[in-house]
Amino acid sequence: MAPSLAEPLTLLGRVIDWFIPPQIAADRDMRQQARMFLMSHLFGPFIGNTVPLALYVVDPSPGYPIAVLAASITGFWIFPFVLKAGGRYQTLALLSIQNLMFCILWSCFFYGGVTSPTLPWVLTIPLLSFFYLSAAPSLRLTVLVMFGVNCLAFASAYRLGLSPERHDLPFAALQGLGLVSTVAASLYVAMMAIYYGKAQASQGEIETEMKQHMATAAELRRATEEAERAGVAKAEFLAKMSHELRTPLNAVIGYSQMLLEDAADEGDAEMAADLDKIHVAGQHLLKLVNEVLDLSKIEAGKMELFNQPTDVVGLVENVVAGFRKAADAAGDKLVVDVEGPVGTALCDEAKVRQALSQLVDNAIKFTSNGEVRVAVRKQDGRVFFDVRDTGIGIEEHVLPALFEHFTVGDDSSASKYGGTGLGLALARKLSRLMGGDVTVTSRVGVGSIFTMSIPHSLVEEEAVPGSAAAPAAGDCLDARIEALQELVAANAPAAAPVRRAVGS
Amino acid sequence: MTVILLVEDNEMNRDMLTRRLQRNGFEVICAPDGPTGVRLADEATPDLILMDVALGEMDGWEATLLIKGSEKTRHIPIIALTAHALSSDRERSVEVGCSDFDTKPVDLPRLLGKINACLRQRAEAAA
After folding, report:
1. Which of A13, A282, A494, B8 could form a disulfide bond with B52, CB atoms 3.0-4.6 angstroms apart?
2. Ramachandran area for residue A344 (φ above 0: left; ψ -120 to 50: alpha; else beta)
3. Neighbours of A491 (CB within 10 A)
């Protein structure tokens, strides 16, 4: 039942909506009123015209009053098209109500006056006013005034002797006419009421659905915020942890190095070797702590990029120079290949350096008495760094997991070659943060090629950003400095013991 | 003798770095926090300042700003010491007027190289 009804109803809805101009369709309340207005004007004349038709049948001498009434009622059909053509909705609604009043009073005027069988139609006036203009009480008042004026006009016409030629109808005809008129008016009111109810119901459904969607959206937002908060909390915890870990580590590394220097001065080789082990282990632990911190920062979205014009080849040579000693110790030849001009790139130098260092470090670690070549080239708007080694290579089944945290080839190589297992993960994460990537190809026993890429943003295109903002930042600094000077003054007593210490 | 002001809040780090710098022929004065550092810079006008950036209430950046903001102390080269080489720290050290930047734990030969480079630059500028 429902599906068979749904089809024509949708069609009706489409026809009605076709008449509604876009500016009215955009507003929910206006659209609703316009739909009632259109429904009434498209179907009203069919029902309303039954009255002149019935009059024509029962009136023994039908004349111009019936023609005028029929023309007036049929005139309602013009309204939808005027609305479609851009007519002002409120004006049209009031005009339509005026026409309705005229029709009713006109028929009453000629057929029976206050006892006219067409009088029940008066009831449709407030009803339609409510449907058309529900949002505006002042307009409803206007309707009331209009009705008064109309009544007055017809009463005056009657008083002034413009009394109509009497269309006295036989009682039986009056009965029939009354029946037709009342049924038509009821039908009309029922039609409007049903349509109004249906429209309200569908409106309610849409609203319920919308509320559900909004509730879901709010829940999602809450969940996202919570996750973000958790991420921030995690990053903060790790940052704090790392700081707490680094402070004692600084002492271990610093004092062991100090003692190492003493031992070296005194020529105590055995002691120096032991202290060196403490020192190296301390450095290793520190590197691990730093890498964990960096990884967690990237994962929490807290790692920021500071792009600056960077001489790429200079950077590569600088990084490689830092590994010269390690390469010598491993018996490796360490070579830089510059493949064509690379120029100055806009990138975060420190992060490129960090990522590239991880790759070179890795290559040297797994290559002994071989060769490590670092090639740099510019291609398709990107800078590529190829780190080739002639080391042990990596088995194919390990490759996919290589960039996961704490993966070092296999477990045995971890113990044999050391390494934190975080380096490659960090290198890849850093590159991806910069809009690049790290990939690897490898053959066991032949060697590996790690390729890092970053976007090569031309420096010329990014003309001195921030130079205009500099003075404002300066003002801000001045204010901050003033505040700090107060802080120094306030802290004077705390500083006193130190001053004495200096004086002594 | 060359005087270095070390602003560092951790006692062990302060002790360690002081002794190692003294062994290398520097006179070292210490400040345990930012305000003291600023005060000592003004009173003792050292030849160079090593500034830990992660201090308490007033951090090393702020202390540097103050020292660089004073007529009497703005010529003193400052080397910022940070826990971890982040590019943001590098940027920041330039922004506030540090001459150089190094990471903790200190690799003494590297730091000595930077200290000497700063002192040389300063001497050349004064000459």
Report:
1. B8
2. beta
3. 18
- In 3D, which of A38, A45, A106, A39 has the Cα closest to residue A74? A45
Domain boundaries, chain A: 2-169, 308-458, 474-503
- Cα-based torsion angle of the residue sequence A476, A478, A482, A488 in order, rounded to the nearest 10 degrees: 100
With 0-12 CB in 10 A as exposed, 13-18 as middle and 19+ as buried, what is B88? middle
Within 8 A of B39 by CB-CB distance, chain A residues are 488, 491-492, 495, 499
**B104:A250 CB<8 A:** yes
| Domain that includes residue B100, residue range | 3-126
Question: What per-residue confidence (pLDDT) applies to A501?
Answer: 38
Give A463's pLDDT tier (boundaries 50, 70, 90): very low
CATH architecture for segment(s) A308-458: 2-Layer Sandwich (3.30)
Distance from CA of A432 to the nearest CA of B (A): 17
- What is the tally of helices (H) and strands (E) in chain A? 18, 8
Q: Are A433 and A452 in contact (CB under 8 A)?
A: no
Q: Mind spelling out the 3-state secondary structure of chain B?
A: CCEEEEECCCHHHHHHHHHHHHHCCCEEEEECCHHHHHHHHHHHCCCEEEEECCCCCCCHHHHHHHHHHCCCCCCCCEEEEECCCCHHHHHHHHHHCCCEEEECCCCHHHHHHHHHHHHHHHHHHHC
| Host H or E run for residue A478 | helix A470-490
Asked if B113 has any chain A CB less than 8 Å from its own CB, the reply is no
Residues of chain B with Cβ-Cβ distance to A495 below 8 Å are 31, 35-36, 39-40
Half-sphere exposure of A42 (CA within 13 A, CB side): 21
Chain A residue with the nearest C-alpha to that of B58: A484
Res. A5: pLDDT tops 90: no
Q: Indicate the number of domains in chain B.
A: 1
Q: Which residues of B touch A426 (CB under 8 A)?
A: none
CATH number of the domain within which B18 lies: 3.40.50.2300
| Predicted confidence (pLDDT) at residue A162 exceeds the cutoff of 60 | yes
Cα separation, A262 vs A401, whole angstroms: 44
To the nearest whole percent, how much of chain A has pLDDT over 70? 84
Chain B, residues 13-42, CB within 8 A of chain A, namely 13, 16-17, 19-20, 23, 29-33, 35-36, 38-40
Specify the pLDDT at position A466: 40
CA A370 from chain centre, in angstroms, equals 53
In the block, which residue shows the tokens 């020292």? B67
Residues of B in contact with A502 (CB under 8 A): 29, 40, 43-44
- What confidence score (pLDDT) does residue A166 get? 64
Contacts of B12 in chain A (CB under 8 A): 247, 250-251, 254-255
Residues 6+ apart with CB under 8 A from B15: none
Q: B12 vs A254: CB contact, 8 Å cut-off?
A: yes
Sheet with B3-7, edge to edge strand ranges: B27-31, B3-7, B48-52, B78-82, B100-103
- Which residue type does A59 have? D
**DSSP, res A302:** -
User: Do A69 and A106 meet the contact criterion of CB atoms below 8 Å apart?
Assistant: yes
Listed residue (A153, A147, A74) closest to A109, CA to CA: A153
Residues 6+ apart with CB under 8 A from A19: A34, A38, A80, A81, A83, A84
